[in-house]
Amino acid sequence: MLEYSGMENNRIVKFNRILEKYFKVKSYGQKVVLILVLLFTLSFSLVSVIFAYLNLEKEYKNVSKALSRAVDIKTDLLLKEFKEIENNSKLLITTYKQSSDIVDYSLLRKFKIYAIFFEDDGKYIGRRINLSPVDIKSYKNFRYALLGDYIILNMNRVYYIFVKKKYINHILDPKKSFVSDYDPIFMLETHVKKYRSFICEKEVIPESNFFLVGCVEKGAVTGNEIKKILIESISLFSTLFILGFIMYHTFFRNVLLYPIKSLKEDIEKMNREGLENVKFTLQLYGEDEFAQISKVLEETRRKILKHQKGMALVLQTTSKMISMTNDIHRFSLFTVDQLDELLNAEGTVLCLYSKIEDRCMFKVHSDNYLKSTIPSSLEKREFLKLTKLPDKNKMIRDRNGHRHMLSIKKEVSDEYSILLITFRKNEPISDEDMNYLDMVISHLVYSINLLNLATYDPLTKLYNRRAIVEYAEREVERSKRYNHQFSIILLDIDDFKGINDTYGHTIGDIVLKQLAEIIKNEVRDIDRVGRYGGEEFIIVLPETRIENAKKLAERIRARILEKEFKISDYKISVTISAGISGFRTHGETFEEILQAADLALYQAKKKGKNQVVMLERDEISQILKEEFQSKNFLVDAIQEDRILPYFQPIVDLNSLEIVGYEILARIKEGDRVIPAHRFISTAIKFGIILKIDEIIQQKTVQFLSEKKEIPQMLFFNLSRPYIQDIQHISNFVELLEKNGIPKENIILEITEEEAISEITIVKEAIRIAKSKGIRFALDDFGVGYSTFSYIKHFDIDIIKLDGSLVKNIHQDRDNQIIVGGIAYICREKGIKLLAEMVETQEELNTLKELGVSYAQGFIFGRAENRLTDKVMEEI
Prior knowledge:
Elements: H1 6-22, H2 28-98, H3 105-110, E1 115-118, E2 124-126, H4 133-137, E3 144-147, E4 150-155, E5 159-164, E6 185-189, E7 198-204, E8 211-217, H5 218-273, H6 289-323, H7 328-343, E9 347-354, E10 359-365, H8 367-371, H9 376-387, E11 394-400, E12 403-411, E13 416-425, H10 431-455, H11 465-482, E14 486-493, H12 496-503, H13 505-522, E15 528-531, E16 536-542, H14 546-562, E17 564-567, E18 570-573, E19 576-582, H15 590-606, E20 612-614, H16 617-639, E21 643-652, E22 657-669, E23 672-674, H17 680-685, H18 689-705, E24 713-717, H19 720-724, H20 726-738, E25 746-751, H21 752-757, H22 759-771, E26 775-781, H23 788-793, E27 798-801, H24 803-806, H25 813-829, E28 832-835, H26 841-849, E29 854-855
Parallel strand pairs: 19-20, 22-24, 24-25, 25-26, 26-27, 27-28, 28-29
Antiparallel strand pairs: 1-2, 1-5, 3-4, 4-5, 6-8, 7-8, 9-10, 9-13, 11-12, 12-13, 14-16, 14-19, 15-16, 17-18, 21-22, 21-29, 22-23
Helix pairs in contact: 2-5, 6-7, 6-10, 12-13, 13-14, 20-22
């Protein structure tokens, strides 16, 4: 096969483009014909030039010979002419002497004599020559002498005959020669010069001082010869071209284009009918380059089919995993049977291995394995080998006689690994097969983990908010259908923020996990427990009377109260508050039941905490009445257009310059401005928060559209209802584009609570927004190291540290370690870190040393209804 360097390949591409652009050829056959014509033309032209050169040199020699012959003949004629003149001169002199020196000029002209000079007396017959006797006698040694326009004939030094050169021009006439076609020149010269552009031949006139020279211009010879060669070449070229064209179209065209036509037909068939319905067979009938291409295409076709089959298996495992969530054994059996089919394997075994118990929790064998003769001892040996491996993930190829094996170990979690062994007879397991196996198993592990992340809280391993709510809604519907009892417990850890602030977030995480274990140990198998918020839990109790739910809540409260949480060197006391509600007693929808439990929980907190409360309907009505007043206040604020955006500056800690703003909602009430924390919870409860989000976005965009410069970063807080409908983000993008606000300057904030409860929805919201150029920030970051799992699964651009980590950080070594670790992870992940609620210079200096990129807080300025030009002077 040919290999081309970059430059050569580039030249080939350029040549191909020239063919298509200037010669208007598109098909391969046309290009081949054109190239053949060009090559034939170039070759023929080169050969013609060579033959022309050789013929020209030959013609030069022929002309030189003819010219030499012509010069010889003219020399002879000249000598005869001289002889005749000499004889005539004798007759003339005799007549002259007899007529008493009377000259007959008519005879002079007749005899071509201009003058005769007598040496003895210095007399002239004819015209006198302007030469002295001495000058004339200087040529006495020559019989013939050329002197200017005269030829002197020496008659034995007695007298000298002068003949004008023009009298002998008839002898030098070029038309009377063998080379008259080339317009030759014949002349008499005393000295012969060399002319590069002429072909010349000379002949010395005997007993004289001059030569007879004949010359032909080379250009005339060349031009004449080229004309002749061109006529011959064009005739020959035309004949050969016509013959070649006829032969190409009658025979060679089909031979030449058959491989291309065959490949094209196979490819078109493949496009119409699919990869499985075509085969490339040209390599079976030849070994040329097209046969090799056909071979590569066939190999590629088979690989793609195999890859498609592998991809289909991956998709099938995903879909089957979702449908078989409650039957992992059946799902695993489906996977191993599909792997056997994909790899043409003798059999496959899969085991879910528990590292803690050092045994397979379950094991499945493929149908092919059960039909095979694979020794159980071989399977046992391979599994033992995998369990002893220190590696978390490993693939091993081995052989036992004619049987080839591939053993795979893939970690699922800290507790479990998947072990898989595939057997194949006679044929070794290729790298490609290993890739398919690894891809299927890796996708299986990833899908299981993703399913767990979407269903379970990563810290407590309880159901997350979405999963527990979906379960509770199904149970409410079931209770309606079968007239069952149904209750819920909503409980919250008292003063959990104080635990985090006092002992650190790592200790707080451990408290959450231990408390979750207490709850799980107290409930029945049919009950479900979920983490509803940061420190808030919900217990769903199917077929349970409300009185029994209250007893369970009191038992859980007592267990937690009497337990001493011993963590590291700390002993921590924890209490909880709980609200109880039940089906029909407090409503017939989960939303009504949850609302009653939430109000009861609020009253438990209000009465002093560490209590279990169940409200009667009239108590709920009174509370709701008060809340509706708060709701009406918000509705009035919306209708009266009193909700406004305020801007709190965000500062780059390196330059201490304002680089952006967080947009915060405010309500104008007379001369007062009510901050968001006073009404956000009510807005969320009554579903008004979405309208507030939209108002803040619209007013902010309108405000910014009137500014000459847009800040680099504009942080917008998103509520849960906003995230739940992706269309809201699309509408916001349309608003930005309509008003010319750069989308890359926008950062949307989500809180840790949303990240916990709406993982799948949040991931999709982030994906959609980032595809439009919008960035995302994770707000209130710092619940603990469990939060790092969100960094792994969410494509976050900025992390905003929770204010509890920032407060007095210059005096809190634990928080410094935590923030330093977060800053390190952010640097490695390419995420910017922003600290909220910075209030002192000491906090600012410490955050900067720890590697925090940005900060906001009262030290830089409070939120205002305008864009602040610069931070406070003392900074």
